Amino acid sequence: MQDKDSFVLYKSFFKPIKGMSDESLGTLMRALFEYQIDGTVTEDESILMAFSFFVNQFEFDNKAYKARCQKNKENADKRWNKKNGNDASAYDRMQADANDADKIREDKISKDKIYKKESTKEKIESFEPNPTSLAVMSEMGFDLSQLPSMIQSFKDQMINRSKSFKDIQSCWRNYLRKGYVKPIEDARAESFGSIRKTITAQQPSGNIISMTNDEIKQMLIEQQAAGCTLN
Fold first, then answer.
1. Any idea what the Cα angle at residue 94 is, between residues 89 and 99, rounded to 5°?
2. Separation CA 167–CA 144 (nearest Å)
3. Mean pLDDT, residues 50-73
4. Mean per-residue pLDDT for 15-42?
5. Torsions phi, psi of 6, nearest 5?
6. What are the DSSP calls for 87-128, one per residue?
7. What is the residue-averaged pLDDT of the chain?
8. Burial profile 184-209: b = 16 or more Cβ within 10 angstroms, e = fewer
9. Once rounded to an integer, what is the mean pLDDT over residues 112-128?
10. Please, are residues 7 and 58 in contact by the beta-carbon 8 Å criterion?
11. What is the reported pLDDT for 192?
């Protein structure tokens, strides 16, 4: 799949997958090697989520590798031209320098486009935590089974965010540490808890109300139909 004959596995990859069984880890490793050798994408749903995180990192590393190779080629060309251009006229040397400068600018613009071509909304919609971000999630006590709903919660908040951001991965880690990102079911439970407190506060002193979440949901629907809201 790639020109080089190696790929990198980072130590930080292990934390989010250490809970997998030995059999699943073996299946994952086979799938990663097959992807690197001939581009085969696994269809095994039991490892697909973990597999996609590795592939995202591989693609990022591959872009960086190609950019580094291109830069090394340009530097080698410059040294060769300088060594073999001693008999060139001053004009030719100046023109070559100008062309090199234009080439460097074009390469820089091209590289910038690679990282900035997606709009803010597209970056948010395509967000997947990288291994470092997954490690923070693991440190906070969450597991991979909660990840899809947590990603959706994060995307919803980022879409409504007014401030600009440079690194969406850093935003994810900050939101996690501050407790802004939680599994959707946990967030719903907190919302129902707040509603239950409001209802209880409206009861005569000493009365305790006992309602299930489904009962609260039905009550809210009825009040909305009647044009009423909780104060």
1. 125
2. 22
3. 84
4. 90
5. -150, 165
6. TS-HHHHHHHHHHHHHHHHHHHHHHHHHHHSS-HHHHHHT--
7. 75
8. eeeeeeeebeebbeeeeeeeeeeeee
9. 72
10. yes
11. 47
What are the helix (H) ranges across the chain?
A: 14-17, 22-38, 48-84, 90-116, 120-125, 131-139, 147-159, 168-178, 184-201, 213-226
Beta-carbon neighbour count of residue 154 at 10 Å?
A: 21
The owner of tokens 């802004």 is: 180
**Cα–Cα separations (whole angstroms), residue 80 to 28, 37, 101, 123, 158:** 45, 34, 16, 41, 49
Res 114 pLDDT > 90: no
Residue type, 81: N
**DSSP state, 146?**
G
Residues in the chain: 231
Measured CA to CA, the distance from residue 87 to residue 169 in angstroms comes to: 52
Long-range contact set of residues 147-152: C-beta below 8 Å, sequence gap at least 24: 147/49, 149/183, 149/184, 149/185, 150/181, 150/182, 150/183, 150/184, 151/127, 152/184
Distance between CA 149 and CA 76 in Å, rounded?
49
